[in-house]
Amino acid sequence: MNLKAKTFFVCSECGYRSSKWLGRCPECDSWNTFEEETVLPEPKEKSRLKPAPGGENIALPLSQISSDANLRITSGMAELDRVLGGGLVRGSAVLLSGEPGIGKSTLLLQISGSIAAKRRVLYISGEESPGQIRLRAERLGVRSDNLLVLAETSLDTSLKQIDDLCPEVIVVDSIQTLRTSEAASTPGSVTQVRECASQLITLAKSRGVAVIMVGHVNKEGGIAGPKVLEHMVDAVLCFEGEHRHAYRIIRASKNRFGSVSELGVFEMTAAGLREVPNPSEALLAGRPKNVSGSCAVCVIEGTRPIIAEIQSLASPTVFPSPRRTATGFDYSRLCMLLAVLEKRIGLRFSGSDVYLNIVGGLEIDEPAADLPTALALISCIKDIPVDAGLIAVGEIGLAGEVRAVPMLESRVREAERLGFTKIIVPARGSELGSIKAESIKLAPVKSVFEAMEAALGG
Ligand code: TYD
Ligand code: MG
Fold first, then answer.
1. How many CB atoms lie within 10 A of CB 265?
2. CA dist., res. 132 & res. 366, Å (int)
3. Does 98 sit in the ligand 1 pocket, CB within 6 Å?
4. From start to end of 27-110, where are the E strands?
5. For the segment 41-83, what is each residue's pLDDT rounded down to a tens digit?
6. pLDDT in tens, 179-229
7. One CATH from 3.30.70.2760, 3.40.50.300, 1.20.1260.10, 3.40.50.620 for 72-276
8. Domain boundaries, the chain
9. Is any atom of ligand 1 closer than 6 Å to the C-beta of 272?
């Protein structure tokens, strides 16, 4: 047997291996991503993990596999449980990714605190000292003797502790800081991340422990490390949000035990993350009345309708080519809407700077937001306020026609629930006939001109 260690080069973006250093990865075309890695010869006994209680692994018919009703562990945060598909699944591995400072450690410490009320939780941190974690826990009001904190970067030491402590939930903050002696490269390198994750996942499956790992993101926003990491885990959750705004969104980009269309909304406060079970209400709070340039919009995030406010402002320009600024909205979509309004309704925006903002830091990329955006722009240039009880949904085509949008009924229901009295909807749409609305009036329109008349009275 050849016991010599082998050296090769690995792309840190996609995990492509090469025997020599390359400037550009032939697999993913990234530049300067090759790192040298040394692989030790395969140890005889690859894993130190004990086999599952009950002895050897044998194949069973589905009907004989017990489905434990107690399989899910609630995280104590309904918004997170919703994204997970009903709670953490025992024996599963979850990867939580997000930009630095978004609140990953805060969230995990908070849920560790609530899970520890009933079960033993091990929080392994390679990023903070026990003292720092304690300070943060005090701030967050987390105190439980069932929550054990281990500041450690060695996976081997952590595994020994896991053996001794038998926790039901393990949190690893972060997978990039762990290292194992079974791979001979620096922490955070492709081989180390893959090896550590693989050992943790094996542990989760064999012992029925739920493992949550934090994964850092690279400059493009993807999870740093090998792409295979995402394939290895059972669920990948992405923590998103603007740092300057309080709202944070968690969505699943992969989930073996639930839908990927759910999302959870949180707010960062001085006492940690707070759930926002009713995001529409929160986003509409403090909405100014009788001010031109504002219109309410209902977008679908996952399967959830969320109502937000679009604000626009047009002011005479001093520049040869007027400025257009869009926050939370697609810039080219704004330019297209301005062109449609200018050409089809004859409203002149070419002499004005136009600013568009989605209140609350929400990012909207749904065509259904076209019509409310157009109404906000029309209201602003005409200086006539849109009624506060009015909301609109619809996609606008280049001819100024209003096109159907999906999930119209749930948008109408959400608008009704929040007390809106009139909703402008596309006249074309298969759902329209079946919607029964009581306290809200449906105003179907075929074109943006008709919408303008319905909203502002011509
Ligand atoms: P953190 O959880 O450390 O982020 P991550 O682990 O994703 O890098 O969160 C850091 C930010 O959260 C920090 O900028 C301060 C803010 N924060 C609060 O606003 N309130 C709090 O109670 C805590 C603990 C953090
Ligand atoms: Mg952190």
1. 24
2. 41
3. yes
4. 34-39, 72-73, 88-89, 93-98
5. 655 555 555 555 556 778 888 888 776 656 899 999 999 999 9
6. 988 877 777 778 888 899 999 999 999 999 999 999 988 767 676 666 778
7. 3.40.50.300
8. 6-39, 72-276, 282-456
9. yes
